[in-house]
User: What shape does this take?
Amino acid sequence: MIPAILTGVRLHMKQASRNPFDLSGVIVWPILYASIAYYLLDAKNEPRLLLSASLGAAVMLMWSMVVIASSGALEQQRWQGTLELVVAAPTPLTAVIGPICIAGALVGAYAIGATLIWGALLFDVPVRVEQPLAFAVAIPACALAIGMLGLIMAATFVLYRASFHLGIAMQYPVWIVSGLLVPISFLPSFVRPLSWVLAPTWGFRAIQEAALGGTPWPDIGMCLVLSLVYLAIGGSCLIAFEYIARARGSLRLT
Amino acid sequence: MNTLRVVFVGGLTSYRALFNWISPWIFIPHTLGYPVFEILFFVYLGRFAGVESDRFFLIGNAFLAIAVTGMFGMGHATAGERRSQTLAALLASPANRFAVFLGRALPSIVTGFFVATISFAICAAILGVHVNLSSLPGLVTATAAAAFSCTALGLCLGALGLRGRNVSVFADVIAACMLLVSGANVPLEKLPGWLQTIASGIPLTHGIEAARGIANGASIAATSDLLLKELAIGGVYLAVGLLMLRLFEYDGRRTGSLETF
Assistant: This one.
């Protein structure tokens, strides 16, 4: 199962990195969100806030890549008629779909480089990482946790034909609740407990604390714990939803 | 008469093809949830930054919701035909091209209009933003002008779909650029001069400015110059789009690339 997961991650990362047109989206979207944040937050005259906005915009894209790229990949398989074969294969569906989600988050991590370079060149955002080792660990930990959260979403993608649209609809709610550009303290109080169970909250905090100087390791640990929880939930949902999709005979419907 | 039939019958068929298969559990979050949360996201960002009022972001993003549907509806019309391998058959028919693709965009535009209106009402209620009933006709006029210009830009994107295989990503990027450049989320005076110049030549910028003026109590007559600019920009994109449609269809036929996907 582990070789299947590693091969899947490598394959889907290669696939997502080959099309310059798709990659342009990975670069342009976070740069635009970061630019909006720079122009709006510039009034506060706090360079660290701008660096935090760069990282927040990058994590936003990681989540987008997970929900959009993974739902898109599954939709593509429906259209190509290969989804049934994937489901029929003896390899557990979790080992097939999990790598799609993780690869999406890892490709989304390209955005961290893009927003940091963009911010430094055009907005004089200081790019100084206080804890490089923790920063290097925080990025894959964040990608893993976000990818595993995507696995839960992906279970619904197997069930519904309109998975791509559901993926798109899930972007803004998670961006808001995770406090990626706007601190959670600015949001209504009922949002806070929701943010605690979402991987982007902890992944972003880990990367932010590592870059700005703080205590990133507990957040990294939280990413790993959440990844395991998501894996358990996502794996169970996939088994259940796969059964329903087989019973309905809806896997082939495009 | 035949052109009108192609627009409306084609539009109705396209609407059924688009939405008949979708579950309400996905249709509602997708069509309504996305713009509502987009508005809330930028409102909270504005509050955090201490820039502009809730109304500023509410109007800007409600307008974007309309723009995106018109633009995407038109842009995806050709991409959808290509994907389902019906583009060549469609272009082999003698039907008026503009009528064919406008028919496919019409359901998106109408849906977008209602979605934006409902999103605006929901977010205004959540955020406690009050808009006078007397300004509604003006807002509807500004909305119609913006929808027209964005659909015209969508026609250019749709024409590109006759030539390129992956126009959807390009349309996504254009929509993302509009978040920044159109003045929906960043006050235009905060943008650098070269971006302001671009902003003045794209759809939506003048429509949003007019709508904000109307919501703040200005009359339609007082904002007529902005509305006329919005319509003029839409007219230019419409002319360019029609030209591109003709050129790329000819090129697609010549190179036999209409069925590649």
User: Anything to note?
Assistant: Residues 47-80 of chain A form the longest helix (34 residues).
